[in-house]
Design brief:
The structure is a homodimer of 368-residue chains. In chain A, 48% of the residues lie in helices and 20% in strands. In chain A, helix 9 packs across helix 11. Chains A, B: Pfam families: HTH_IclR, ROK.
Amino acid sequence: MTTTRAEPQPADFADVRTTNLAVVLRHLRAHGPSSRAAIAASTGLTKATVSSLTGDLIGHRLLRETGPGGNRIGRPATVLALDGSAYASIGIQVAPDQLTALAVDYSGERLLLWHRAAGDSTAEMVGLAQRAAARVRQQGRHVLGLTLAVPGDVDGTGLRDRVAGSLRQKDLAVTVAGHAALAAIAERRHGGWANVAYVSGVAGLDAGLIIDGHPVRGGRLGHLTLGPAGTPALREQAGIAPLVRRALPDLDPAAQADLAPAVEQVAIRARSGDTTALSALKHAGSCLGQGLAALVNLVEPEVIVLGDHFATLAEWLIPAASGELARLAPALGTDLRASTLGLHAAALGGAVSHLDQVDTGRLPDNDR
Amino acid sequence: MTTTRAEPQPADFADVRTTNLAVVLRHLRAHGPSSRAAIAASTGLTKATVSSLTGDLIGHRLLRETGPGGNRIGRPATVLALDGSAYASIGIQVAPDQLTALAVDYSGERLLLWHRAAGDSTAEMVGLAQRAAARVRQQGRHVLGLTLAVPGDVDGTGLRDRVAGSLRQKDLAVTVAGHAALAAIAERRHGGWANVAYVSGVAGLDAGLIIDGHPVRGGRLGHLTLGPAGTPALREQAGIAPLVRRALPDLDPAAQADLAPAVEQVAIRARSGDTTALSALKHAGSCLGQGLAALVNLVEPEVIVLGDHFATLAEWLIPAASGELARLAPALGTDLRASTLGLHAAALGGAVSHLDQVDTGRLPDNDR
């Protein structure tokens, strides 16, 4: 991909059509149901081109006609809308404490959200993926793809080959990517940002980076070491697991390891004014802010979204982190906020990443 | 630009031609003089398309025919080469201690390189730019553009408007960008890297970042603060001016401020084993390495190029910096090396940035 974006490839008329299919799909994604005339007026494409493109998209069951629009004068124009019914896309989020399966249709509507308290064995991932794929296919849907969201340090290629090799459905396109990178893709679609960083704490401490609209590699936020030799890495200072250990010293290790309820407990104690929890949150927030200041100085995201477990604790983390951001990256007005996508944003990102592929105009080949 | 890359724009057949013009120009840039048949074979474009594209490029005087190629059997094929003669592009590098003007022709050959020991007043920039533009126009060349390379903290828009407003040649397209960002563009063209960071010390401490082949904003390396409150920013630890002050404590401030000769003096003393110079270099190299480790963990460049004054001192800085990189960003095999483009890489980057524009297939309109 790097090379493709760096070096131009020969183009032909098919590429023009692909680009214009993308323009129409993005218009409907952004503006909702529209008439052919409205699409033409807004995109600058001719009505004839729009009719040809939308005909192709209706043929692929990506669009459907939804009858007369709102304009009262003259013959009512037929309105086109994204058609969710024919396609599904699946994301599987793999965390140390649980597996999550999430599927959406092409219009972005959620089809299923399953949680399994489980380990991260390949067999368990494969089992959950197979059940999710079977369910949406029972609904008569073509599966655009299956993406596994894994901790940043997992060998994606090896896992993809193992999972693809074990799946009953050999025709499923399997992708593997990091939690934070996929969650950032979900935030890009949700918020429409071209430059966004998503901070994930479901496994260690990672940042998913979207720069100029494109996901980029890196984001090993937890690996930053902000001090002289001997200073622990940021994941030891601002990661969720060490935060839980500091905030809930009385909790036994097994309970601490079950992150979601432990994080809820931290929030409950902080709300009740527990000084141990509050000082642990202040320490984690300050350290996180120092790491985010480095991120802001180096790549200047418009928005930093505190995701998953960090979002649960955002009301205490953001004040401490903002103070460090203001001290260390002044004059760069980065918006620091909590994610609204919940604990399974990576699963959502894995699912919508396949919708994004279609939205680039590369229409699915589902042998209709 | 962000939006353009994030959101597809309607395409037409002109875009296909633009893309294919870019493919032909990039081929000749990368492979040197080639026959039409060789271009077709290598790019996958048809011979008819290549003939039409090259005809257009010859008409714009971007290509010229250079007579028979090397193939011995049958009628010798005419060979096409990039034609430098019709166009020039100018970069002006603005540093506290001197102004540099550099111009290249379209084939990348250097046309002029002027240094002025001067301040950074707009009047002096304008004077130098006017003389450089007048010189290449006397040679009958169309000027593709003029780019000012300035310290990272300069307000580019304000400066561009002042300079464009003061220039005698009102038709000159003026751009302003940071030293490091432009030097990174020069390194991308020189080394062909899609992911490269250029470290510049001509004014403070900045990194120019190319990610997936595209320049991105940010790179405020000198603003990183790698430690608790009270720790000085990285530019105070690893910048060239503080390094000179530590390495040459006996030098008077005026001599220290003249960076190029002072840096040469540091190199001479280090080579002679001067312990003060060597320990200053070791300190700066280690701090630089800690900052580069943050950069590597966050955006994983393939190559980090120590540029301008850092290149002069690379033989002492790289060992210290590599040690910190290995400690803080293990398992990420980033290549740390010295630039070979000298002290005016930013001026070169400013000039070649306009060649890059033409290489995307947007042919200059020089009212022939």
